[in-house]
Amino acid sequence: MDFNVKKLASDAGVFFTRAVQFTEEKLGQAEKTELDPHLENLITRADCTKNWTEKILKQTEVLLQPNPSARIEEFIYDKLDKKLPSRTTNAELLGQYMLEAAIEFGPETPYGKTLITVGEYQKRLGGAEREFLHTSAATFLSPLRNFLEGDWRTISKERRLLENRRLDLDICKARLKKAKQAEAKAAAAPDFQETRPRNYVLSASASALLSEEVDKAEHELRVAQTEFDRQAEVTRLLLEGISSTHLNHLRCLQDFAEAQATYYAQCHHYMQDLQRELNRSGFICRHCYDSHRPQYLLGHSPSPLGPVTLAMEQSQLPITGARKARVLYDYDAHDTSELSLLADELITVYTVPGMDPDWLIGERGNEKGKVPVTYLELLS
């Protein structure tokens, strides 16, 4: 118990002395040992790395999970070291609602069939999103968190220890300076009564004490300098490891970009397939839709050829004969009757009687086939 009390008192004294030294440095009343420029640059670089890593990590979490409540739940599970329960994505939930609605409205009706088609693709999109979130968390978010919660804490601890060693060094420097000033002052102002034997003995004793105090201060300074140099070297080695951290984060960033590209490519592929399926069933749906529309919405009396022919005529009015069109997106032909397209290429398009209004005939050199209108920009 006595040992603990003495140690506590000693630690309190050291803390107070460091606080006085730190305050005097801030007020310009004490000298401060400056770190070498290389170490200062390493510290600045490390602080920059830590700050930007925190910002990138936080914003990536917002990007992957916009819901603050869900992020808090993930944080709690991570701190408790428990597995996060599987969460249904919004796209999967939407797809499930569409499938359930199709059952209510009738899966054989045009609306029900379309709900089933779109709902299934929404669930595929949700599955792709789930895979993307899992991959991003494992390959990008976890390494960033590991750096902030592991390596950076070690660096911060050693930097605090280095700062304490620097304060101790400056305290020893100030103590030695005061001891030398006291010794020089005593030597410059001798005791005029030292011719008396008693005063001479006292003067010699005081001089010996001052000299001993200087020797003690010099010894403490050497010890403090050694500990400071050793801690500076440890800190420097840790800070130089930031370069390896950058390389690791670079690989993680590349993995994240690759996962993102794969996710968006899957989404684009799914939506292309969905659009093709909707285009194939669009004739029936449009037929059903026009057959139930009031005549005043159609703008004129019914055509003697029926609503299907009327829809064709309306869609064909802007297109008279062959004309040029620019392809907006890549398109892969589903069968031999279709023409594959490449984005930004120019082709010749035209219509034929009785053709689905969502499709045109496209020609490129000796190649010919059906192309979807939604993939084209018609040129005047």
From TrEMBL:
This is SH3 domain containing GRB2 like, endophilin B2. InterPro entries: AH/BAR_dom_sf, BAR_dom, Endophilin_SH3RF, SH3-like_dom_sf, SH3_domain. SUPFAM superfamilies: BAR/IMD domain-like, SH3-domain. One of its GO terms (biological process) is membrane organization. Belongs to the endophilin family. The keyword Signal does not apply. Residues 320-380 form the SH3 domain. GO terms for cellular component: cytoplasm; membrane. The keyword Disulfide bond does not apply. It comes from the Eukaryota. Residues 24-287 form the BAR domain.
